[in-house]
Specification:
mainly alpha, 65% helix
Length: 86
C-alpha cells in the first residue's frame, strides 16, 4: 500500500506502508518529524552556501584589486622606460 502527503503543488512525500495504518496521527507525527529534520538540513546547507558565496565574492574583489595594482605598476614602469629584468 502506498500513501502520499501533498505539501504543496510541487512537493509530495510518498510513504510505502507494509501494514495497515491504524493510527494516522502517529504516522503524521512521524512524517512531521522527518520534514522538520529535512528543513533543518536545508537551512544549514543554505547558510553554508551563503557563506561560501560571500567568501567567493571577497576573494574576487581581492583578485580584482591585485590585478589593478599590477596593471598600474606595469603602466608606471612602461611609461618611465624601465625594463623588467627576469
Amino acid at each position: 500500500m502506498r500513501f502520499y502527503l501533498l505539501l504543496s503543488d510541487k512537493t509530495a512525500i510518498f510513504v510505502s506502508v507494509k501494514q495497515p495504518v491504524n493510527d494516522i496521527t502517529e504516522v503524521l507525527r512521524g512524517l512531521s518529524a522527518q520534514i522538520e529534520s529535512m528543513q533543518k538540513t536545508i537551512d544549514s546547507q543554505h547558510a553554508t552556501i551563503c557563506q561560501i558565496n560571500r567568501n567567493g565574492q571577497a576573494q574576487l574583489r581581492k583578485i580584482q584589486s591585485l590585478e589593478r595594482m599590477l596593471r598600474d605598476k606595469w603602466i608606471f614602469i612602461l611609461s618611465h622606460g624601465r625594463q623588467c629584468k627576469y
